[in-house]
Sequence to fold (442 residues):
Amino acid sequence: MSVREGNLEPPKRHPLAWKTPEFYDEGQVLAELERVFDICHGCRRCVSLCNAFPKLFDLIDEGDSGEVDAIPKAKYWEVVDQCYLCDVCFMTKCPYVPPHAWNVDFPHLMLRAKAIKFKKGEVNFRDKLLTSTDALGKLLAIPVVAQTVNAVNRNKVARGAMDKVLKVHKDRRLPDYAPQPFRAAARTDGQFPARDGERTPGKVAVFSTCYINYNEPGIGHDLLGILAHNEIPTTLVEKEACCGMPKLELGDLESVNRLKEINIPQLARLARDGYAILTAIPSCTLMFKQELPLMYPEDAEVQAVAEAMFDPFEYLVLRHKDGLLKTDFKQPLGKVSYHIPCHLRVQNIGQKTRELLQMVPDTTITTVERCAGHDGTWGVKSEYFDLSMKIGRPVFRQMAAADPDYVSSDCAIAGRHICQGMGGTETKKQHPLSLIRIAYGL
Fold:
């Protein structure tokens, strides 16, 4: 008999009833937190995943009874604040997720608690600012402004002031803002003809994402170069807003709804027209694949977008299986230390990035499948920076052990964080899409 009482069904997420008053009932949530915390206390399999579980177990072990009932309810929020919704506990560790009768969904319970905190106004200005990625990008990714902001972000005195005022840690290496956004310079060509035997969607729409658009547009251009090399008709999503993942992690579900109302209608039109929709950021892909469908289970357009949404390497490997991907790689990559970020792992598509990188001749891939500890804005914050570096240490060691020519992660922010933890290997950092473009000799 398995821990799931003989049930061989895969984990199943229940829809989020976020529009109901009960969702925001603090008494109900505290009771559910106590129930789930007690189950976690008796299991403790997830202790190594992040700091939420060590925090919970410390609270229990330091209590008078050594049980959950000794924890003051007010301290439950300390556990909630440590969770950054990576979803790994649900997808890879917990034996009690649905359809198990205990019905444990730790990340979505944390999300519910975060939504209550947000509704009560217990979220500070910094957190609202950091999760407003679109607004920040539009303001800061302007030629003169971007150069000034980038200089300030590298200035020790300015970073010390930022730490004191905004609580953005002075030692966290922040991504630059690009003086020319991705969308302003992107070029696509839809004139390639369809080919016989195409089973994967034969045309692609690229959702550029805030990070690619404003911080590392080169990754987006690399994706377009790969698609063009493979003669895949490609277009950009005509108009887009943030996918909503930063606001979801904050518990600001009304903002998620506003962003959904901007994005979904046009993405649904593309999905109905037969486009595969790609984003180069795993968190954005996951938002459309999983979180929005769970928030809007009855919305046919949301479901259509979820079905059309692909991770770029998931799509490219499917093309390869159909015999349609060019493998005329000209440049070996040598030794690549490759990190699989959490929001890619939980998409349950397998290690598609590694699979494609291994097709490049004279290339050795060392794969690290563990949380690096940055998580979007969480590792930027002064109070969590040291914890983010601690969580990432096993990743830093494993990535460095291979003495790699390249350090790579599908999550560009995680890649930057890993390079910082390895002691400053920025010159070796390349996104997997950039590596494939290099291998093609483009």
About this structure: The two ends are 54 Å apart (CA to CA). Strands lie at 204-206, 234-236, 276-278, 309-310, 334-339, 363-368, 406-409. The chain has three domains: 21-119, 182-238+256-318, 327-440.
